What does this fold into?
Amino acid sequence: MRRILNTAHVYMILGVVSGLYYRELTKAEDFTGDSRLGVVHTHLLALGMLFFLIVLVLEKQFGLTGSRLFPWFYWIYNAGLALTVGMMTVHGTLTVLGHESGAAIAGIAGLGHILLTAGLVLLFVSLVKLLPAGSGRAPPSGASRPRPHRRSPRRPDGRTRRRERGRRPSGRRPHSFLPAPVRDRRRRPRTASSPSRWRA
It folds into this structure.
């Protein structure tokens, strides 16, 4: 990410310097016509600074530098932009000075445009490979949608009610602290022949 930010910073400086160079050269030569030198700074600011700031956002979102094609894109795009802007600067300077530009300058500028196009293609191929597999696909019509989570109602005091779960009977009798003979005597059924404790 630091390299992308530094690249955008360099193009910003070059754009400002090229604009200053165009102004001072045309002022010194008293030139009032049109030339390629007048659009050099806009190319550096748009295709250089702004473009790499967008690449910085893509790197933050998708991890663009993790792609194997990113170094190819980076160097090919920068080489194409350098050739294009360099030939525009030479052509514009010759125009301001009153000289004719040759066919070699136009050919090198065309090569720079080809490299720019190749760099943009590599960038889009890298983005396609980094996108998740299921992004942008609509779910099938028969697919079941996840049910929304239901929250339990709240009390007036703001606390959440919890369902009171009834305790299942364990089947155990309550523990008795009486000794064993007394417990056996209490469990024995009472018959008619057994003496009554409350007889008069």
